[in-house]
Design brief:
Blueprint lengths: L1 E9 L2 E9 L9 E9 L2 H8 L15 E9 L9 E5 L14 E4 L4 E3 L6 H23 L8 E4 L5 H12 L4 E5 L5 H7 L3 E4 L1 H4 L10 E6 L3 H9 L1 E9 L13 H5 L3 E4 L7 H14 L5 H4 E5 L3 H9 L6 E5 L3
Helix pairs in contact: 1-10, 2-3, 2-8
Amino acid sequence: MFKGVLIEKDENGYRAALKELDDSLLPAGDVTVKVAYSCFNYKDGLAITGQSPVVRRFPMIPGVDLAGTVEASSHPEYRVGDSVLLNGWGVGETHWGGFAQKARLRSEWLVPLPVAFTPRQAMAIGTAGYTAMLCVLALERGGVTPDKGEILVTGAAGGVGSVAVSILAKLGYRVVAVSGRMEEADYLKGLGAAEVLARAEFADPGKPLGKERWEGAIDVVGSHVLANVCATMRYGGVVAACGLAGGMDFPATVAPFILRGVTLAGVDSVMCPRPARLEAWARLARDLDLSKLDAISHEIGLSDAIPMAKTLMAGRVRGRVVIDVER
């Protein structure tokens, strides 16, 4: 038996509850993991609250991230006792995820836990931090280096943004953070932001082109914010887009792309190929200041996961929320 947050949908409605579950209920997979930690992502908040139909199979255990040790394996690459982590692959949507004390998974979804991180640290990073690093890699591939100019990070007080600000600052970039919560300005400057701007400056419909300022940008918001970011990029700049917290629409024109040579690079973390995942985690081990993780993250127990989902969806969570599944 193990504990897990179970989401059910039937004639009685949509609901999530912490339950005792039998091992026989675990889905198919060639590796069983004893989960140590998971963490909250926006998608997990959507899943638990039912605010968006991200769960496509019921019953479902949410949690797109997990870290733990192999308990059983029929795959030669993984042995009992190996430390592993997982990000994405539809886990928590179509396959039981990390908000539980056990998970049975496909071996190709797993990544060996880098020796630089404990399981808790890996989940303080989680999909948000791994996505942030994928965005940094996209900027680098586009030729954006610290000497070229300023980097803008939207949604900076959230999970992706917090880690992105920390990484970019350590790499020597001048980072300008954008947030809808200006009360978090000191927090963002503590992570390395040189300047903090209000999201309101980017949230309304803007002109096709604005004053050139940003050499690179990481956007998690979408909608008018992304359109305005693109419109104010410098010639040849690169925008890494990885989120839609402000909307899925993109009310922009082609002007930044055909008149300033701006590149809009899409970043997907869910189905990202394994080599890119390994590269991202290797770079996180090298380029993330682990001393910043305590500021970026805080810990809750599995029993607190359901109320935390409502807090997350209300936009009242700063940084990363780590879940200790044993409490």
